[in-house]
Design brief:
The complex is a heterotrimer of chains A (256), B (104) and C (114). Chain A is an all-alpha fold. Chain A has one domain (52-241). Chain A is built from 11 helices and 2 strands, in the order ααααβααααααβα. Chain A has helices at residues 3-27, 37-48, 54-62, 64-84, 103-125, 134-145, 147-151, 154-160, 163-186, 210-238, 248-254; strands spanning 92-93, 239-240. Chain A has a two-stranded antiparallel ribbon. In chain A, helix 2 (37-48) packs across helix 3 and helix 4 (64-84) runs antiparallel to helix 9 (163-186). Chain B is mostly helical and 104 residues long. Chain B has one domain (5-81). In chain B, helix 1 (5-28) packs antiparallel against helix 2 (32-52) and helix 2 (32-52) packs antiparallel against helix 3. Chain B is elongated, with a radius of gyration of 21 Å. The relative contact order of chain B is 0.10. In chain C, 71% of the residues lie in helices and 0% in strands. In chain C, helix 1 (4-21) packs antiparallel against helix 2 (26-48) and helix 2 runs antiparallel to helix 3 (70-101). Chain C has a single domain (4-113), classed as Helix Hairpins (Orthogonal Bundle). Chain C has helices at 4-21, 26-48, 70-101, 106-113. The chains are: A mainly alpha (256), B mainly alpha (104), C mainly alpha (114). Chain B: Residues 17-83 form the MrpA C-terminal/MbhD domain.
Chain lengths: 256, 104, 114
């Protein structure tokens, strides 16, 4: 498809989309409406299940099966990226040379790293009470760990980030979610049904299964993001392509 | 929140304008390096909007993902694809240092 | 004001797709996809907003206070994180394409395959 044809097709499709979308918008309940049938029901259900953070209750209890699906997408995406970015046979690994780091950067990074990891852990652990949970806390934990790269260098990061461990943790997190689902079946209920005692409203141990599922998600998201960033860092910093000409000439034809 | 509803509406409107402007800029920035910077600005604008529509959970994850992880991955990809393959002389040198197996 | 957030979401989607359609660099196209994705967040949270409602977290407000819709927030929340990992998967495909063909321009790629 030539550029011109593509632009025309896009312009037509965009015009059609814009008209129909705008018409649909006027038919939607207006912005800020007080009528939220699903919202009110899920709030009632969350209060019944003693989970103060309704968003966590929806994610890890009421619609936990959906979240299991999302988790599988996440796991699959991480797996795919790891497979695609593994070192090919004809690639070299070049040890990056450490460059001197400003003392202030080192101090700030070394000081912030434990704080960030602590905050990440807190956000995961309090997902059922306050805004936060496995998804957000996991990402904070993963980014916090990479402060080591900012503050020091790649080798320090590699030492505090044993990839094999995080790869295993990723699988453990994904597996734990499914196993927690079977707990409901064993107790005679449905898959992922909340079978644990619900605890006191607004306590860390409230919500039954929610804190456990939340923790499993936290482990999986944290180790998944660490794996992802590690693969990209590896590619960008360490792995060398073979010299020009080796692939570029025949590459296009040889991999049909 | 005890601010007047009108004031909240106004703030949401401002945040929406910021988000739309940042999104337009991000899509029209052709250079991936600059685009990643604009994307992280878009992430911060979205975070602001989410806070104003009372979605702190989403704001937190958008802040961590949209303004840190996505731009970082784009930057690393750009660094990888722009990196010149090593010159021919370096190749034999590298083969000597090459680690066998995946190494870790 | 009552439809403004929805229209904004539509615009963000269109501008993201426009960027992808006219892109000459796959990394740029992936960035545009992230833009188009963020339109869904704006749309969903716009649908779930309730004027005068607070965040759906009852740890510091009495039960029964009007809150915004938590269901769409849960949808957006997982979408944000999962979207980032899918972006990462696409970027690793881009790296592979660059390795195998030596180019990042979608049009040159079409010529190669055609």
């Amino acid at each position: 498809m030539s550029r011109r044809v593509r632009s025309t097709v896009f312009a037509l499709a965009a015009a059609v989309f814009a008209v129909f979308f705008a018409v649909t918008c006027t038919e939607l309940p207006h912005f800020g409406t007080a009528d939220h049938p699903y919202g009110s029901r899920s709030v009632a259900a969350a209060v019944r299940q003693h989970t103060a953070n309704v968003v966590s209750s929806v994610n890890f209890d009421q619609r936990a099966l959906d979240t299991l699906g999302e988790e599988s997408i996440l796991f699959g995406a991480v797996l795919g990226a790891v497979v695609l970015l593994r070192r090919a046979r004809d690639e070299d690994r070049a040890e990056p040379e450490p460059r001197p780091v400003l003392p202030s950067t080192l101090l700030l990074g070394a000081g912030l790293l434990p704080v960030t990891v602590l905050v990440g852990g807190y956000v995961v652990a309090h997902g059922q009470l306050s805004p936060g949970g496995g998804f957000q806390g996991g990402v904070i934990l993963a980014t916090g760990l990479h402060l080591a790269y900012v503050a020091a260098d790649y080798r320090v990061l590699r030492r505090i980030r044993p990839l094999a461990v995080f790869a295993a943790l990723d699988a453990v997190g994904a597996g734990a979610f499914t196993l927690l689902g079977f707990a409901g079946l064993l107790a005679g209920g449905a898959f992922l049904e909340n079978v644990l005692p619900l605890g006191t409203f607004n306590q860390v141990s409230s919500g039954g299964l929610v804190p456990l599922v939340n923790a499993a998600v936290g482990v999986e998201v944290a180790s998944g993001v660490i794996m992802l960033v590690a693969q990209f860092l590896d590619q960008a910093v360490e792995i060398d392509e073979p010299a020009a000409g080796g692939r570029r000439g025949g590459g296009a034809g040889s991999n049909r | 929140m005890n601010t007047a509803p009108g004031a909240v509406d106004f703030l949401v409107g401002v945040a929406l304008v910021l988000v739309v402007a940042a999104a337009t800029a991000a899509a029209l920035t052709r250079d991936p390096v600059r685009q990643s910077v604009v994307l992280s600005v878009l992430g911060v604008c979205l975070t602001l909007l989410f806070l104003l529509v009372q979605a702190p959970d989403v704001a937190l994850s958008q802040l961590a993902v949209g303004s840190a992880i996505t731009p970082l991955l784009i930057l690393l990809t750009v660094r990888k694809v722009r990196r010149r393959p090593r010159a021919g002389a370096g190749h034999g040198d590298g083969a000597a240092k090459r680690e066998r197996g995946s190494g870790r | 004001m009552s439809v403004l957030p929805f229209l904004a979401a539509g615009w963000i989607f269109l501008v993201g797709v426009y960027g992808m359609v006219t892109s000459r660099n796959l990394v740029h196209a992936v960035g545009c996809l992230a833009v188009a994705q963020s339109s869904t967040y704006v749309l969903l949270l716009g649908v779930g907003y309730r004027r005068g409602g607070t965040a759906p977290v009852f740890s510091d407000i009495p039960v029964g206070t009007p809150v915004v819709d938590p269901v769409v927030q849960a949808l957006v929340l997982t979408d944000v994180v999962v979207g980032a990992t899918v972006t990462a998967l696409l970027l690793s495909l881009v790296i592979q394409i660059r390795k195998r063909t030596g180019t990042l321009d979608p049009e040159t790629l079409t010529d190669l395959k055609g």
